[in-house]
Design a protein that fits this description.
six-stranded parallel beta sheet, Rossmann fold, homodimer, 17% strand, 550 residues, alpha/beta, 4 domains
């Protein structure tokens, strides 16, 4: 017999949830009060989007959910953008959202709002627990949904009187059941396609982007001649020397179309058929080429790893040696700093076993190329497109993996959405190096403005992408939150700062002053390189080629 | 004949909406592109909560809506907390939320989400315009809802292909109809109550807290002996020397109950019956005393000002001279700086015609008392309880009233939710002085923890309210966004900094280092003073009195 909050905490701990990212208010005071009797690790955030993004980064690395504690509908609202990113990535999470006492809601007090609709927007499972006697059971169910084979977000809405009510009994989790394998007919059919000799690409997503899945795909590729692609925004991608390399689809649909051109078959393994990030006038949204057949190995609730291993055996590739990425590092860059040079320095200096949170946007287009042969590392990306994820995800990843170096590469515009994350990184003394790619612009929008067909944007339109009036000084911003920080305007300064950050445990920030990649049109630096650009059929390519004088 | 975005902008302008707070993305590029052909003022925010809070502050002062431009469901989500605050205050606003092209949504691209449910959470009127031919008409309807007598939030969801589609024709607004008056029977009945001699309080809210309504209420009070109270969190309250003073209800229900005790009648004029902000174990949520009758003068759609004037005539008070607040200023404070001393200095130095955005939380408890006799000014408060409103509201108020000095009084915890507002204040060179009441704690939660009944909170619980590890340096944070800033730890330093800020147009920030008001229990500084505390019947009062040695 205990109060609701205590039983909730104990039930979470019984189910293996040992970390909670929180930003509490009055309605969550009993939860907070119960913390001293629990070994739940609590990480305080100054803004809810930091808490939800951190829970996302944590789960990507820990491979189990964290909890969040949020204050009513508005606290949940502040966390929605990063919950959206986690939802799109199918990252498990358990949100505890405090609510007014059940009898208080009818008075429509200041903070009263409809929590459930906001919760549903980002959660597969939503429940308002109305009685203290159901609380532990509901909590266990929330965790079960989160850690189930589909990996989803569960949101438990916790009225204050349920939290403070007496009579709750903590429960233990139900044993987990193994997820089903892909249907053997499906495996056989896909194996037949792969053996057919017709031009086939395998598109990997989500759970098959860690070593085991990558090795399986590489074996299939080696045996059958299929190409292996990776979804545009992987939840977590293991890469570097000693692992099979995969070609990531480009963000720009014009480039992704070139990558996908000519295939007769596309095999999806825990990935969706590729579509354009946005729609553009006169351009296709669905990027699978005409006449290309799409084959889906697994549904979300099936065991992706077990099923790709089945496919390996079905094509007779289980003894095939996969092609692995050789170790190689670029030279250290020199001269005036640019986004690509930041990526080059990262490739040159990245420590072993690093985790990269990549929200570098336009400045990061060369990251994949320059780090391909770096020591093995993980890359976490902007899965749902809602910017402001990079810093919180780095924070959460560092909480999950305290012994691995974390590198956050974040554009200036993106960083400002959830800049409060720096404070928590300092508070927890996390081993995170933050690089702000500070081009003083929403640089991507200058490109997008052209892509949507605006011919000659005027000064008022351009001003909406300008972050130089006033310029943001991230050294001072970091310092204001207690983080040691340096500025780099040359590659030499950046190399030295990065080396120092990697060799000194704890939080660091480098304000990397770089030009906007769109200035003077450096689109040739896009991952696929100039060759792809040359083959691009789109009006954008024409305009780019014209401007490049090709 | 023109594209959707252009017609939308022209329709907004036809309806008098001339300011838009924006944070756009790719799906809004045609809107952005159309800006150069419009005289719409566009104010860029680095985070959507800044845009929505600024639109709120703007409308409170301009008495007409601003527009916002937000990027899909996640952009709207980031703006939800401050939209909640505006909704609770019934502040008019027109949100334009970009969406994917209508034909693109089925592909469930990365940023695809259910925008309408989030919009409905904070908007009375929501429409997704599916055809360019309906866009101007829908826009005009959105503005009509916003500026209608109920003053509400309208959200127009704008698919990208509707924005870029051709064939739209801007429309002009329908003429506005005058809102109806209160029913004459209701006016007569309330007049009878007021003349009855029974102890009666008039609780004023929203639209009757500007001069005309205050004078009317003061006349009634003078004539009938009724007391005049003001809602806890007024949307906009005119006060200071030469205006009738009103007693604001306390945030703490324990104190508000004392204020309301003994009344036989409570007359609500554009206000709701008072309820506790949160529920607390064993305490009442509904604060109207037992046996007190509640009388409601107007419904939200009725003309509050016209109706209170009717009531003035009905009680024969139309020639009564209202009691007005005399001019008086406190001395300048001296010694170690505290929250109350900040309020005292504000009272001493506040320039004429100022606008105060008050989110000072526990540090601001003496603000009302110290500024009561200051030159006439407006106070804008945290209407919906979702913190992070103070800075954006100040920004929006300054855009609406460029010739009035704006003072933002914001707690450190609150400031960090939407700290990006400082950048826009600098960018627009607004006449805003920001005072951060930096007590390095979520101080209110220390009090709330006690109020909910947690007897002896442990160190882990207390740590969740501690913002001192690491301390936030707002001078550096402001400087990082280009804002001139000073720190003050003594009253003398604060006086000098405030004087300098008020005498020099443009943005300023003062990082006021103050102790947490809860340390050593300074609750005696609450607005009602020690006398009220002495009369408090609650366990809190007992505990406070004990600690105070009373």
């Amino acid at each position: 017999m205990t109060n609701g909050a205590t039983a909730l905490l104990e039930t979470l701990r019984n189910a293996g949830v040992d970390t909670c990212f929180i930003n509490p208010g009055t309605s969550e005071m009993h939860f907070v009060s119960a913390l001293d009797d629990s070994d739940m690790r609590c990480v305080l955030a100054l803004f809810e989007g930091v808490a939800t993004g951190a829970a996302d980064g944590y789960a990507r690395m820990a491979q189990k959910p964290a909890a969040t504690l949020l204050h009513l509908g508005c606290g949940l609202g502040n966390g929605v953008a990063n919950l959206h990113n986690a939802r799109k990535a199918r990252v498990p999470m358990v949100n505890i959202v405090g609510d007014h006492a059940t009898y208080h809601t009818k008075f429509d007090a200041q903070l009263q709002s409809d929590i459930e609709t906001v919760a549903r927007n980002v959660s597969t499972w939503v429940r308002t627990t109305k009685s203290v006697h159901n609380l532990a059971k509901d909590t266990a169910e929330a965790v079960a949904v989160a850690i189930g084979p589909q990996e989803q977000i569960a949101t438990l809405i916790l009225p204050a009187d349920v939290s403070w009510g007496e009579g709750a009994v903590p429960v233990s989790p139900q044993p987990r059941t193994a997820p089903p394998q892909a249907d053997s007919n499906v495996v056989e059919e896909i194996a037949r396609v792969l053996r057919s000799g017709e031009k086939t690409a395998i598109l990997l997503g989500r759970r098959v982007l860690l070593e085991q899945g990558l090795v399986a795909a590489a074996r299939i590729a080696e045996k059958t001649g299929a190409s292996v692609l990776c979804e545009v925004f992987p939840t977590r991608l293991e890469r570097g020397a000693g692992l099979p390399a995969v070609e990531r689809l480009a963000y720009f649909a014009e480039l992704a179309s070139v990558q996908l051109a000519g295939y007769k078959h596309l095999v999806l393994i825990d990935a969706k058929a590729p579509v354009s990030f946005f729609a553009y006038p006169g351009k296709k949204s669905y990027l699978v080429p005409d006449g290309c057949s799409v084959h889906t190995l697994v549904t979300p609730e099936q065991d992706a790893i077990g099923s790709i291993e089945q496919l390996v055996r079905a094509v007779g590739a289980d003894r095939v040696k996969p092609k692995l990425q050789a170790s190689s590092r670029p030279e250290l860059p020199t001269g005036k700093l640019t986004g690509p040079k930041v990526c080059q320095a990262v490739g040159a200096l990245l420590p072993a076993n690093a985790i990269i949170s990549d929200e570098a946007q336009t400045s990061g287009v060369k990251l994949g190329a320059f780090t391909a042969g770096a020591p093995r590392h993980d890359v976490l990306t902007l899965t749902g497109g809602a910017i402001g994820q990079g810093l919180p995800v780095a924070l959460g990843a560092a909480v999950a993996e305290p012994n691995r170096p974390v590198l956050a590469l974040v554009g200036d515009g993106s960083a400002m959405y959830t800049v409060q994350a720096l404070w928590t990184i300092v508070r927890e003394q996390l081993n995170v190096t933050t690089v702000i790619l500070n081009n003083r612009a929403y640089s991507i929008l200058n490109i997008e403005l052209e892509r949507v067909g605006a011919e000659e944007p005027g000064p008022k339109a351009r001003a909406q992408f300008d972050l130089n009036t006033p310029p943001l000084d991230f050294v001072k911003l970091a310092d204001g939150m207690g983080m040691s920080a340096r500025r780099a305007s040359t590659a030499e300064e950046f190399n030295a700062a990065l080396e120092q950050a990697f060799s000194t445990p704890g939080p660091h920030l480098i304000d990397a002053i770089v030009p906007s990649e769109f200035d003077g049109l450096k689109l040739r630096a896009l991952p696929m390189g100039l060759e792809v650009l040359q083959r691009m059929p789109s009006p954008l390519a024409k305009s780019i080629k014209k401007k490049l004088g090709l």
